[in-house]
Amino acid sequence: MVREVVILAIESSCDDTSAAVIRNETILSNVVASQKVHEAYGGVVPELASRAHQQNIIPVVDVALKRAGVSRSEISAVAFTRGPGLLGSLLVGTSFAKAFALALGVPLIEVNHLQAHVLALFIREPGMTDRADASQAAPAPAQATTSLSAATQSADMPPVAARTAAIPPISAQSATPAPAQAATSAPAQAATPAPAQTATSAPAQTATSAPAQAIVSGPVYRVPSFPFLCLLVSGGNSQIILVRDHLHMEVIGQTIDDAAGEAFDKCAKVMGLPYPGGPYIDKLAKEGNPHRFPFTKPAISGLDYSFSGLKTNFLYFLRDQLRENPGFIEQNKADLAASLQKTIIDILLQKLTRAAKETRIRDIAIAGGVSANSGLRNAIQAEAQKRKWNVFIPKFEFTMDNAAMIAIAGYYKYLRGEFAGQDAVPYSRTHL
Ligand code: KG4
Question: pTM, whole model, 2 decimals?
């Protein structure tokens, strides 16, 4: 019989503290505590992020293990994000993972955050069924669409009652930073989350009991075939990746300046929207005219991207309009958002289409936080119909920073015996 591998994974590269448990490829729990403290500053404040990680990490891991219904003795290895990311934030996750692995006497696995975003495509949920011709099948319902309400952390988090008890309310810290109190009170209460209440987070509950029935009627476990192309778009990256196998990836195009997510966030900031602005632009864009304002598209050779020109163009355009009419943004925000979003999507898809042509690959995926964008998801599906691509989009909760993707990456590394030593240190920058 094939041995079951259970991985506990930790993600703390930026401003989300997350822990997940996976059994082979099937995710059992994925808990994310987002840090609202940064909203007041219009961007992530590294020092505040690492402090919040310190407060969150124990209760988040505790809830993840309880939801998964997994005891510590069942854990085969502990995986953690080693980089890239904010050093202080990474240090918290790395130190916790090292200590936990040492205490349990199990191997430690370091994971590259970017690789994990791509591997999120391979996360299996309880109840999914196998099909031999899976790559030709229609997308499983779970992968189809997203909505802004799903963009909140509620789907990832413990139920409200359990959430407030188990995880320090990060948003409250922005008003009264009281790390000590929040941290000390949380772990004890974390013991209470009742699985029966976790209506919004099915994986944990169904994990232990569902597989037998699920094989008959669940959504299809649908993954791309190697080699495939993945457009990785997040707050820090915009890359076209040629994925040869789970752990062998090659960047064939990337941004030479800003990332797509940064363009969304910075332009949103200029419009006075909260941070991170991507989801707000997405929501506003649904009501606006995408053809109203033609913004600049870069002329960059090859498969590389550039978004800094668009950012500057957007900024100067608004500055000029505001001189004439101080109410310009308010009166045109939906059209501004729709036009900006269309420009970013056009830029992304132009190079992706070219990469697909050049490599003759038709299995195309998107990953990373910006892949949550509903306009991008629709545009890539439309492109797929036209070009006969098989498109793969991770389920919404696995597109943002989350430990489930670290867990699946950890699983593949475990199978290859790729373990890290206790001397592993985080890195802020790295390549695939
Ligand atoms: O992958 P991610 O969670 O974090 C890293 O950068 O690693 O990506 C965050 C980025 C932010 O720039 C955020 O604005 C963007 O993803 N984002 C979106 C949407 N949801 C998140 N951008 C556009 N539309 C969205 N719906």
Answer: 0.81
